[in-house]
Amino acid sequence: MKFNKWTLGLAAVGVVSLASVAKAEETMSMVKTAVSGTTISGYVDTSVEWAVCPSHTTLGDQGWNYSSFFSVPFRQYKQDGFNLNSVGITIEKPLDETPWASGYKVQLVYGPDGNSLLGEDMPIKQAYVTLRVPVGNGIVFKIGQFDTIIGYEVFEAGNNPNFTRSFGWGIEPTEHTGILASYQINDSIAVSAGVANSLSAGINTIKSGPGNRYSKDAWDKTGLASITLTAPQSWGFMAGSSFSSGIVYGMDSAYGDNSVNIYAGLTVPTPIKGLAFGASFDYKSSCYDGSYDYYGPEKQSVEAYAFALYGTWQATEKLSLNLRGEYAHEDYNDSYYFYDSFDGFGKEQYRYQADVFSLTATLQYNLWANVISRLELRYDALCQTDHTSGNDEFGHYSYGYSYPSVDQLSLYLNIIYKF
């Protein structure tokens, strides 16, 4: 090992030893090798949100959060005010070109949106090790906490065509703790498959027994699979068109019964420069035992699906217009046992159905470097029906009614700095 003259001089008078210097330099070399290629990126996401024309206090004040599966994500308690939505920081070392390459990714999210998704004490959104195994074209493994593999939209608003998320995004899973294998068969076909603890977000989240009463079963895991098809250059103006489909099937962490999410999405360019269209379909079904009491278990089931159409026109380098139209439906059933002091032991049956139509228009103009600035107008219309029968064990009353159609027009100004 070579030493500079200053180090040799210090060694000559006994201030340092060459062995310790060599060990220190070897350690520093290992550190430099380990962090070589590491990048740091992130964003600051802010907004101004205004309910222009609310026709219902719940819609105006909180957003639509009338069930756990079917809501407008991250709109609760934000309207008619200025908002810091989230701050994201990503530290990543991508895979290099070596056959046995390795890397990692750590993504931290802070702020109200991150708290809603992950909980206030858990800012880690993703943290995984990436490994390549040189089989065929190379199998890439992610091990740790990673984003779900399905969906047209993502958590990071700056990576979506619109600022507010779709109802489809609201019924999808978000993160998983597990292992995921991805393989690029050729330029046009990519597949992935994996196993995770559960469908639910949260680091190391593991399924419990029904109603959280029983210990977990080691074999109750969640399966993930997806495929993406990309049109080759020989397709002319259709080159780059993509179709993705995937399924997530397994256990919910809270209740412990099977749930399934199915997704399909399509993006197609057109002969008109800068104009492209997209479509997505999301489906979720869950059936589980809820909380237990002295009389018996609460039975719940939810079925929800959403269709969305997207249109994007990149008018200039800085100016773009993004449109989204969506229809979503939810069917929620709840049955629980109770004890009535007059009629004795009985059972309540609840059933809610909801239909939502939504239209979102987003005008984006990137005036400042590294800044996404956009103005968005969103209209939502809800019709909800309540089919409820009380105490069907004894049948002493029953009822069913429909809520009037309610709607809301909202205006958003979104400013995001990305670095």
Number of spatially distinct domains: 1
**Secondary-structure class:** mainly beta
* Named CATH topology: Porin
- As laid out across the biggest beta sheet, the strand order is 1-2-3-4-5-6-7-8-9-10-11-12-13-14-15-17
How many extended strands?
17
Q: Provide the gyration radius in Å.
A: 26 Å
In helices, the fraction of residues equals: 10-25%
Which residues form runs of ≥5 with pLDDT under 50?
57-69, 209-215, 339-344, 390-401
Identify the CATH class: Mainly Beta
- The CATH architecture designation is Beta Barrel
Q: Strand fraction band?
A: over 45%
CATH superfamily grouping: Porin
Give the end-to-end Cα distance, rounded to a whole number of Å. 40 Å
SSE string = HHEHEEHEEHEEEEEEEEEEEE
Describe the structure in your own words.
By secondary structure, the chain is mainly beta. The chain has a single domain (39-418), classed as Beta Barrel (Porin). The chain has 5 helices and 17 strands. It has a 16-stranded antiparallel β-barrel with strand order 1-2-3-4-5-6-7-8-9-10-11-12-13-14-15-17. The relative contact order is 0.12.
Which helices and strands occur, and which strands form pairs?
Elements: H1 5-12, H2 18-35, E1 39-54, H3 57-62, E2 81-93, E3 102-110, H4 112-118, E4 124-133, E5 139-147, H5 167-170, E6 175-184, E7 189-196, E8 222-230, E9 242-251, E10 258-269, E11 275-292, E12 297-314, E13 319-340, E14 344-365, E15 371-390, E16 397-402, E17 406-418
Antiparallel strand pairs: 1-2, 1-17, 2-3, 3-4, 4-5, 5-6, 6-7, 7-8, 8-9, 9-10, 10-11, 11-12, 12-13, 13-14, 14-15, 15-16, 15-17
